[in-house]
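queue> pop job 88
queue> type: inverse folding (structure -> sequence)
queue> payload:
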């Protein structure tokens, strides 16, 4: 999937391409890039933990739970942002293009103890956090790679796969909504995003 995206971009632009990701544990993401064979010419792969962080205010007048987020500065200086996510259903809830943005939040800033993770965010209600994040870190495009559906009862590392042979492309909210409606996947953060939108229209 990533190869196709990069080739598609190169057909219309010679702009710098950055791939940015982080891990829930705060461990280096380099080994993940290596296992996925992310070694593309003129493409820079970055680890969230190695970026400079800036505090960004939530534009909502009444944030659900997060008035600010600590985010990598490279995101703010990028011209076009794309979220590429596999189709995952964890504990009965879809975790697609918008939920994929969680990987850009430095887990060591929102975890407890020495292992990092997003414990603080989950304690606040992760769907509320994702709704706040959607407005604070708006992305231009969402791509859901749905050649198969990964279903897990709770552990993101363990589950079952079933073939689908689909791909969804569009603005992150719209693409998550399309996948939700066409595949019958529940995503609580979509409803929260709808409710919060009224705040911006006041």
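queue> result:
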């Amino acid at each position: 999937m990533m190869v196709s995206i990069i080739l598609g971009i190169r057909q219309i632009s010679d702009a710098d391409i950055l791939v940015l990701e982080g891990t829930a544990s705060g461990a280096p993401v380099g080994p993940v890039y290596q296992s996925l064979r992310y070694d593309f010419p003129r493409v820079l792969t970055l680890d969230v933990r190695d970026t400079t962080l800036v505090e960004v205010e939530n534009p909502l007048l009444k944030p659900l739970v997060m008035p600010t987020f600590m985010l990598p500065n490279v995101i703010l200086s990028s011209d076009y942002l794309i979220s590429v996510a596999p189709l995952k259903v964890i504990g009965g809830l879809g975790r697609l293009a918008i939920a994929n943005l969680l990987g850009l939040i430095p887990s060591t800033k929102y975890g407890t103890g020495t292992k990092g993770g997003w414990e603080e965010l989950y304690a606040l209600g992760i769907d509320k956090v994702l709704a706040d994040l959607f407005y604070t870190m708006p992305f231009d495009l969402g791509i859901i790679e749905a050649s198969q559906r990964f279903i897990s009862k709770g552990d993101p590392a363990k589950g079952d796969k079933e073939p689908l042979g689909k791909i969804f492309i569009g603005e992150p909210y719209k693409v998550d909504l399309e996948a939700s409606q066409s595949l019958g996947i529940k995503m609580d953060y979509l409803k929260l995003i709808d409710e919060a939108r009224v705040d911006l229209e006041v």
